[in-house]
Amino acid sequence: MRLFILAVAAVFVSAPAAMAQSPASGSKPTLDFGFYRARIEPMFLVKRPGNIRCAECHERGAGALRFQPLEAGGAGWSEENSRKNFTAVSAFVVPGDPKTSRLLQHPLERDSGGDPFHGGGKHWSADDAEYRTLAAWVRGETRSAPRTVARIIQTNAAGDDSHVIDPVTNTVVGVINDIRIPHGITSAPDGSRVYISNEALHTLDAVDARSLSVIARVPLSGRPNNVAISKDGRKVYVGIAQAPGALDVIDTIALKNVKTVPVTGAIHNVYVTPDGKFAVAGSIPASAISIVDTSTDQMVRTIKMTAGVRPMAFDTNPDGSTRRIFVQLSNYHGFAVVDFASGQEVARIEHPPIPGVHAHNDGLQAAPAHGLGVTPDGKQLWSTSKVYGYAYVHSLPDLKEIARVFVGQHPEWVTFSPDGRRIYIAAAGDNQTFVVDTSTFKEVARIPVGQVPKRNGTVMLQTN
């Protein structure tokens, strides 16, 4: 997919001439501010390979197009300043006529009818999605309810990219670049953004859903591991793995780190319970689970375990409240079962050997079992084994083993398609994501991804 830098009109020096022109026929449409703010303005914040963000030039008025100063951290603009930007950008548009609007024509390739020169470079052809979006706005299209599609996003722990997988075709349909050592992943409920923790820069990176480009990096209190989002999408909880550990709370509207919640130990993973009432964070060095009330963002209790806390999953009571926590532990080939209300461990299930399969004990990082998930219908618990390269499947609520499935070398993380019919398992040793049918327990596909795939997640992304 061709992307454009939208250093839009870096030499926009003849806006009055553009405004003097009119559409060939009919009255001029009205440019819609809602469409502009939701679809056009985010383009100015995208960092694309080899280029700076448009806002970095136009914030100082390059080419006569001047943006208002970015909010702290460079994450965007307030609505008041967005309206000022809207007025400034509109000066380079002929409503109803994309072909004579310098906002579109200046960065357009000459072979597609663009201007001879643009100081910010040529960035698209007339067939590119970004150009078509701009043209729709210029023609007067208003903001409609966004269409969303399900995607599986696979981060690659030894790379700077994350692969976007279509669960219908089981093919890679996009790549998120420029996030070194991507770790945890989640998305906004409306599908407008993806959030990925960046271990290299110690930031939470916000990714525009349409362009798949980073639009903001929010500084964190230390090196992050996994992330989780509140039910209303207004807060992202980031587990801080750097001692002494914490949960950083990110306001997704302001894209700011608004609170650092003290917890017990450095955090490996964090989850929001199915009912949305608690953020549950696990610590390896402290062998503890910290439970934070999401209404107050205060820690309310700690559950001590016998070993480091690694991936977790949850099942629920009939009223939707959390019933049990399933916990994979350091140096344990299986999982523990913890009653959520009492905080007591009530069972421990060890994965038995696979007959005829050679056990691998190198590179386990004290995590022989590292990948745990409950199907969306709450009827199965999947647990991966790095020792054997298999997933063990248990029925819920009785926790009887019902299947074993080969899922590649060093399986590290699991996520499900929204309907629960497929499970996606990151095989870190194979640089592939395995896809398995959850009813037949048969392998469906192996999808090549990046270097050492680990964490993955299921998201909904806006497409219009």
Name the CATH superfamily assignment of the largest domain. YVTN repeat-like/Quinoprotein amine dehydrogenase
Helix content: under 10%
Total beta-strand segments = 28
Q: Which structural class do the helices and strands define?
A: mainly beta
Count of distinct structural domains:
2
Radius of gyration: 24 Å
Mean pLDDT: 90
Q: Quote the CATH topology of the largest domain.
A: Methylamine Dehydrogenase, Chain H
| Count of separate DSSP helical elements | 6
Determine and state the CATH class of the largest domain: Mainly Beta
Arrangement of strands in the largest sheet: 3-2-1-28
Note the main sheet. 4 strands, antiparallel
Low-confidence segments, given as residue ranges, are 1-25
By CATH, the architecture of the largest domain is named 7 Propeller
Strand content: 35-45%
Shape: elongated
For the termini, the CA-CA separation is: 15 Å
What does it look like?
The chain has 6 helices and 28 strands. It is mainly beta and about 475 residues long. The protein folds into 2 domains: about 120 residues, no CATH class; about 325 residues, Methylamine Dehydrogenase, Chain H (7 Propeller). The strands form 7 sheets. Strands 3-2-1-28 form a 4-stranded antiparallel sheet, with no helix packed on it. The chain has a 4-stranded antiparallel sheet with strand order 4-5-6-7, with no helix packed on it. It has a 4-stranded antiparallel sheet with strand order 8-9-10-11, with no helix packed on it. A hairpin with a 4-residue loop joins β21 and β22.
